[in-house]
Amino acid sequence: MRPSSEAELAEAVAAASGPLLVRGGGTRTIGTALGEVLETGGLSGVELYEPGALTLVAKAGTPVAEVEAVLAADRQRLAFEVPDLRGLLGREGLSTIGGVLAANASGPRRVQVGAARDAALGVRFVDGSGAVVKNGGRVMKNVTGYDLVKLLAGSRGTLGVLSAVSFKVQAQPEAEATLVIEGLADAAGLAALRAALGSPFDVSGVARHSGRSLIRVEGMAGSVGYRLGRLRDLVGGDVIEGDASAMAWREVRDVVPLQGRPGEVWRIATLPTAAADVVARLGGAALWDWGGGLIWVLLEPGRGADVAAAVAGRGHATLVRGEGGPAFPSEAPEVAALVAGVKAKFDPRGILNRGMI
Question: Which fold has domain 256-321?
Answer without folding.
Answer: Alpha-Beta Plaits (3.30.70)
